[in-house]
Amino acid sequence: MSDDNSQAPVTTKQVRRRKAVAAETPPPGGRYSLLSFALPAGDAVELVADRERPDAYYVMVTTRADGAQAAPVLDRIPIEPIGNAVFEQFGHIRELGGYRPAHADLRSVPRVAKLQPPALAEGEDRPTNVFPPDTRFIYQDITFPWRTVGRVWTDSGSATGCSIGPRLVLTASHVVNWLDGGGAGWIKFSPAYYNGNGPWGEYYATRVIYWNKAEGGLTDLETAFDYVVLVMNSRVGDDVGYPGYRIYDDTWNGGAFWQHMGYPGDLTGTQRPAFVDDAVISTADGQSLSGQSGLVLGHFNDITGGHSGGPAWGWWAGEPWSAYKVPRRRRRATAPRVTTSSAGVRH
C-alpha cells in the first residue's frame, strides 16, 4: 500500500468502449510449439495429413504394442527464491509499463463467446465462491490484452496465468507441484487458450521463482504470498505482449475498477476462459513473511477453482494504448496494470 498514490483507476464502465486498431499488420511467419513431449529411445514420430481433409493432421508414433509412453519434456524444473537482493534493487519501483505488439488490436472488454453456460435458477448457487447472480461470461478473444492470459498446466492440475515480461508468466504458488528433494514438477502455459486450441501454442517453464511455497491450506499468510513467476523456454511476451504493473493502494477499496479472468472448472471444465467485470476489492490486509510484506485482498466476486493465478487488472486515465510502444525503450508505456494474482485474494 502506498501513501501518495492519488490516481485511482477508472471504473470498468468508463473503459468498456475503449478500442485501438493495430498500427501494423502481423509479421509474416511465426513458429509456435503446439505439442511437446518426450518418447523412449527407439520410438519414431511423424506428422500425417488426413486423406479426406488435407488441412487436418495427426501426430503418429511408431512404438511397442503396449502403446506410446509420452512424458513431459521437463519433468523436474529448478526453483529459485526471490531473495532480499531483488527487493533491495527493485522494491522502490511503484509501476512498470507493459508491451502491446504493434500488430495487436486492443479491446477493453473481450468478445463474448457463442457458447455460454446455462443461467442460474433463482436461489441456485454454483460450487465455491459464487455470489448469485453469477456475473461471469465465457469469452474468446486474441486482441490485446486478453491474449496475455492463458491456461496453465502443472504436474498436479490446471490454473490460469498471465504474461508479465518477455519470458515471464505470473501464476499462483499453490498450483505448483513442489517436489521432495528440490525442484518443481513440469509447468506449461498456453496464452489465449480456448477449448483445446492455443493460437500461440505451448510454452514450458524452465525455472520457478518464488517467495513462499504454498503447500498448506492457504491461510491469510500463505494467500498474501501465493504467487510465482515462471521463466519460460521462449519469449512469450514478445509474441502476445504483457500488461504493466502498479502497486495496490487501499484507497481504491470499494471501487468497481477491476477485471478478472480465469479458467473455471465449474463453468467450462477449465477449457475456456471466463471474465468478471465491475469487480470490487473490499479490503486489503497486510501480512509479513521473512521480512517482506504482502496483501490479502478481500472481495465478493465470482471466482471458483481454475481461476487461481488469473490476473486482476484495472485501466487508468491517459493510458488507452492507442499508440504502439517499443518494448526495449525505457519509456513509460500505457497499459492495463496488473495489481494482484487471483490466488492472492480472500472471499
- Poorly predicted ranges: 124-128, 322-335, 340-347
> How many DSSP-defined strands?
23
Given helix and strand content, the structural type is mainly beta
| Whole-number mean pLDDT | 81
**SSE order in H/E notation?**
HEEEEEHEEEEEEEEEHEHEEHEEEEEE
The shape, in one word, is: globular
Q: For this structure, what is the CATH class of the largest domain?
A: Mainly Beta
Spatial strand sequence of the major β-sheet? 6-16-22-21-17-18-8
State the domain count: 2
The CATH topology of the largest domain is Thrombin, subunit H
Return Rg in Å: 20 Å
Question: Any descriptors?
Answer:
single chain; 347 residues; mainly beta; Thrombin, subunit H; 2 domains; seven-stranded mixed β-sheet; six-stranded antiparallel beta barrel; 23 strands; disordered C terminus
Task: Tell me what the structure shows.
- A hairpin with a 4-residue loop joins strand 10 (157-163) and strand 11 (168-171).
- 7% of the residues lie in helices and 30% in strands.
- The radius of gyration is 20 Å and the shape is globular.
- The chain has 2 domains: 12-31 and 77-346, Trypsin-like serine proteases (Thrombin, subunit H), CATH 2.40.10.10; 43-71, no CATH class.
- The chain contains 5 helices and 23 strands.
- The strands form 6 sheets. The chain has a 7-stranded mixed beta sheet, with no helix packed on it.
